[in-house]
Amino acid sequence: MTRVLVVDDEPQIVRALVINLRARGYEVDAAHDGAGALELAVARHPDVVVLDLGLPDMDGAEVIKGLRGWTRVPIIVLSARQSSDEKVEALDAGADDYVTKPFGMDELLARLRAAVRRAEPVAGSGEDAVVVTDSFTVDLAAKRVNRGGADIRLTPTEWHLLEVLVRNAGRLVSQKQLLQEVWGPAYRTETNYLRVYMAQLRRKLEADPSRPRHFITEPGMGYRFER
């Protein structure tokens, strides 16, 4: 069973999510503040986290950073904050998706399913299962990235984006294709997602993120991975 951790201080939202998720076969834990969320995450090891940003004891972005210190669990932000800056801040902190309140339950459940799929292991094809560059190594079968002898922690979304680019090494991958493959058909116009996540990949993997050698932008078209 997929285990979901719901973190929100609004009892009616928690109740609605718990009922809907359990009705669809998910196991659900719930926390009403950031400290409780971090404790439950350690104790219960959820497969996905649905997180409100406006918590009574700490900002949700701090919870995201706390989780990202040790786990790659997919994190879906569920918040009434709707500004682009706040969305980008949450994604920069390590969230995988952002849903604004009020929300449709069907849409949230679809995004949750997509987040879980992105986190599932992908079998390697055997050929070029390990891709080596002068800066880092990508093991597609093991879903691991190594740079300078140390493993680099990527979120599930960062990994999925990297995997699509690496499997198409040397070829231009359009913005629309990347958005559809990584986030789903409903996200084909959300180019700000690509901007945020490409910046994160460059910060983690490029020797000089401001002058990338491996993750190349083709303005107005898409991105290309070069070894």
In the CATH hierarchy, the third-tier topology of the largest domain is known as Rossmann fold
Strand arrangement across the biggest beta sheet: 2-1-3-4-5
Summed over residues and divided by their number, the pLDDT gives a mean of: 89
Question: Major beta sheet, specifics?
Answer: 5 strands, parallel
Q: Which CATH architecture of the largest domain is right?
A: 3-Layer(aba) Sandwich
Estimate the helix proportion, in percent. Answer: 40-55%
CATH superfamily of the largest domain: Response regulator
Count of distinct strands: 12
Strand content: 15-25%
Gross geometry: globular
Pfam families: Response_reg, Trans_reg_C
Domain Response regulatory: 3-116
GO molecular function: cis-regulatory region sequence-specific DNA binding; identical protein binding; phosphorelay response regulator activity
Keywords: Cytoplasm, DNA-binding, Phosphoprotein, Transcription, Transcription regulation, Two-component regulatory system
